[in-house]
Write a structure and sequence with these properties.
Bound molecules: adenosine-5'-diphosphate
CATH class of the largest domain: Alpha Beta
Helix content: 40-55%
Structural class: alpha/beta
CATH topology of the largest domain: Rossmann fold
């Protein structure tokens, strides 16, 4: 496993301090590789998926000892407005202790406001190609003095037809800049772009791994919405009642927040991360091993190298940064021939990372529905009945028999049992679940029917390209694809249904004219 620390990377203390505030314990793989290369002045081509920590990989070198010259220092191009905002937000956090001024620019927002902001002086611009080019043409953005040009999610930008804009932007910039191109895949068009506009000694960095084997742990994922992450976890815990479970978070702060939130709801949880000293960690670990802590909330770093024989559940509250960490995490369960399960909570943004994990580990991660309130109710009922049966086999309860016999005169014993069960039930559920419909992101998805299928030799990749290029949408808006014999289904984000119906239906796909219609959702909840 990686052993590089942020402090090994020659970063300025202002940047290191911000990283520490963000709660990151150690660089992700792409960060450990890209940061030194950019600091040494090379161009770089990085093959990495979403969610691997690319923003900090280029953000730290950009912000490291950045000099304010009154000119734009760096430009970051992203395929969508959503990504521009996300990348900008992450950069703002990294820039916390610097005086750098950042601005996201994208279409759909009044250009005048962006023009005014740029005229007041910005150091770093994060934008979509169309809007950035527009601002260059209006002579608001001048790229003649930039130090860094970053192309994020290159393959997506090309998929969306931005190649012309990107080339025009590159041509408008100075030659002695450093260029960094990130892309999840490396199609020829990307290679050509790199060859044409990057220095010949550009470094190639890839964090894509091929095959890795995972133990026979049963693996599941839950599709969740970001805001429902905590409630989803509570529902899973309430239904599964794990005896010993490690819950993984990405950051130290995440661990602290989650452990506290769980404790506040009455769960037997404790946090563990790299800021705790060795002694504290050992104590926590021992209590977990003895069973006096049921839920251990930990970062990857804290859980690494510790000897925990076996846990019943591994829960990825956040997905890890890379596939190895995933394998390492889930290796904590299912040991010694015991059954183990691993659950991952996955938002639509994290979905590509889940796919990558699935592909590289060649394992089947099955989808599970978030437990409904009914599921929780029935599962608690079964658990209480089982415990009651166990108690009936012992004699402990007998001291209550004479007292309860008296109750028998005024109430029905069935009612009394039900009332006691109700008391226990409310004591045991830890969350005030108010409604059943917390969201799997399939709620945001619309299922489309497409009249082309296996018989037409349709492949998922071809379908994605067909939808993206005709409707000018990002492949991120596309979810599960099921290709059947004569037709196919695809889940797409609600926002892109109209462009798809308008621009794809009736076009030729795999040699056949495609009819596209809205279908019923695959997993309708309640
Ligand atoms: P990408 O640009 O590759 O999609 P991001 O840079 O947005 O990925 O990072 C994905 C998530 O991981 C963000 O929430 C970010 O805060 C977090 N993250 C990035 N680097 C680290 C790290 N070294 N340790 C923990 N979390 C990290």
């Amino acid at each position: 496993m990686k052993t590089v620390r942020f402090s090994d990377l020659n970063l300025d203390k202002n940047v290191l301090k911000a990283i520490d505030d963000m709660g990151f314990e150690e660089p992700s793989k792409i960060q450990a590789e890209v940061i030194p290369v950019l600091l040494e002045g090379y161009d770089a081509i990085g093959q990495a998926q979403t969610g691997t920590g690319k923003t900090l990989a280029f953000g730290a070198p950009i912000l490291n000892k950045m000099e304010k010259t009154g000119n734009i220092n760096s430009l970051i191009l992203t395929p969508t407005r959503e990504l521009a905002v996300q990348v900008n937000d992450e950069l703002v956090r990294i820039a916390k202790y610097t005086s750098a001024k950042l601005l996201p620019v994208y279409g759909g927002q009044p250009i005048e406001r962006q023009i005014r902001a740029i005229r007041r002086g910005v150091d770093i611009i994060v934008g979509t190609p169309g809007r950035v080019l527009d601002l260059i043409k209006r002579k608001v953005i001048n790229l003649k003095h930039i130090k860094f040009l970053i192309l994020d999610e290159g393959d997506q930008m090309l998929d969306m037809g931005f190649i012309g804009d990107i080339e025009a932007i590159i041509k408008a910039s100075n030659n002695n800049r450093q260029t960094m191109l990130f892309s999840a895949t490396m199609p020829n068009a990307i290679k050509k772009l790199a060859k044409r506009y990057m220095k010949p000694d550009a470094k190639h960095i890839s964090v894509v791994r091929n095959v890795m084997t995972v133990s026979t742990v049963e693996q599941y994922y839950y599709e969740i919405k970001h805001r429902d992450r905590f409630e989803s976890l509570c529902r899973i815990l309430d239904v599964e009642e794990p005896l010993s479970s490690i819950i993984f978070c990405k950051t130290k702060r995440g661990v602290d927040e989650l452990a506290q939130a769980l404790q506040a709801r009455g769960y037997n949880a404790e946090g563990m991360h790299g800021d705790m000293n060795q002694n504290q960690r050992l104590q926590t670990l021992n209590r977990f091993k003895e069973g006096s802590i049921e839920l251990l909330v930990a970062t990857d770093v804290a859980a690494r190298g510790i000897d925990i024989e076996d846990v019943s559940h591994v829960i990825n509250y956040d997905l890890p940064q890379d596939t190895e960490s995933y394998v390492h995490r889930i290796g904590r369960t299912g040991r010694a021939k015991k059954e183990g399960v691993a659950y991952s909570l996955v938002t639509s943004k994290e979905y590509p990372m889940l796919k990558l994990i699935q592909r590289t580990t060649k394992s089947k991660i099955k989808r599970k529905e978030i437990p409904t309130i009914d599921d929780i109710f029935h599962s608690k009922y079964r658990s209480i009945v089982n415990r009651a049966k166990e108690a009936l086999e012992k004699d402990d309860y007998k001291k209550f028999v004479p007292l309860v016999s008296k109750l028998d005169e005024d109430y029905s014993l069935v009612d009394i049992s039900a009332a006691l069960m109700n008391l226990l039930y409310h004591k045991e559920i830890s969350f005030d679940y108010s409604k059943n419909d917390i969201g799997s992101f399939s709620n945001d998805y619309t299922r489309l029917f497409i009249s082309v299928g296996q018989m037409d030799r349709l492949k998922p990749k071809v379908l994605v390209r067909f939808l993206c290029s005709n409707a000018q949408i990002s492949s991120k808006s596309i979810g599960d694809i099921d290709i059947m014999k004569k037709f196919s289904f695809v889940n797409v984000n609600k926002d892109v249904v109209r462009p798809i119906l308008q621009h794809c239906s009736g076009k030729i796909l795999s040699g056949r004219r495609a009819t596209i219609q809205i279908s019923k959702p695959k997993h309708s909840r309640i």
